[in-house]
């Protein structure tokens, strides 16, 4: 593995090497930060504050609100001469400050306010982050370089999930220490991003955005029919995934579902096991991402999502739940890579910002809809019915991609840029 890494970096331009170094380190620190929105914020709300369905929903959706507003944030940036790295770095520093303030008062309203702000900021600058990879990494190495960074990111988050889960299992009131540590990690990550080189100060040049209203970006959904169709497909299976993510936490942690596992077991099933599989599988999916049919890759990933949903919610066995977590990790390994980089295959280089902003916007809307549907319908329909619906949506997305699979070949995608 070390020999392969050395051979890879021998061919990498200097700007890409510097980007890889600082981006990898900031992703390692963000491995701690992201354990919160993925599991621990909602677990804190349920176990410490005995949150009702409204607060469960509010704590689960702020990242998706940030995604929705990212499209207008991108428009605001047109009027300034900030580098993409400046935008992303300052955003992470402010996120860290908000996290440091979140545990000061022991009140569900106060905690929810700061967690909403943290989630909102955490996803506001996602299109700018993707633009950094597009401008600093060679196209033929983009997936592999980003994949190696993700391997270390997931490795770090695996360790953090295990440590935090054990810490909360030992003394749940130590969640305040976790929030403070997350805040400091986000601030360090922000300063590391500021060290990443950015070739130009003009956001307008990087994103290729004309001086037009934000809503003008939506024209690409209709002008670029393949892109628009993939956004629709992504919406369907994304709704299935995002609908069930908070329910996994509730299913394992709330007494009415018959499991009520301690924090360490919840972290094992939802963080440690999935992220271990992410470490193993991310280089595999990165290899496929750079070389093979993207739509075929996306189709394969959704197969693992469907199996994970069905296994997780139809078993009271910890072994089966951990197996479902492993399948979820395989899905997320490729899914995270595909989610961040797929528009670099589909969009002309000067339209990366617009395409990514649309992708992030629709991720935000389906996240809000999915979370509210899942959390608020489960008392009436039950976990089994919700999981059947989610699995059905995932299967539907697979069927929808079969007729267009040939359009995902590298040659076909390359012709789109001619």
Count of helical stretches: 18
Rg, Cα atoms, Å: 20 Å
The topology string of helices and strands comes to HHHHHHHHHHHHHHHHHH
Low-confidence stretches: 202-210
Shape verdict: globular
Gap between N and C termini, in Å?
36 Å
Mean pLDDT: 89
Please characterize this protein's 3D structure.
The protein has 418 residues and is an all-alpha fold. It contains 18 helices and no strands. The chain is globular and about 55 Å long. About 2% of the residues have low confidence.
What labels describe this entry?
418 residues, mainly alpha, 18 helices
Strand-helix topology:
Elements: H1 2-9, H2 14-33, H3 35-47, H4 53-60, H5 62-77, H6 84-101, H7 108-122, H8 126-136, H9 142-170, H10 175-194, H11 203-207, H12 220-223, H13 225-253, H14 263-291, H15 294-313, H16 318-346, H17 352-401, H18 410-415
Helix pairs in contact: 2-9, 2-10, 3-4, 3-13, 3-14, 4-7, 4-17, 5-7, 5-17, 6-7, 6-8, 6-10, 8-17, 9-14, 13-15, 13-17, 14-16, 15-16, 15-17, 16-17
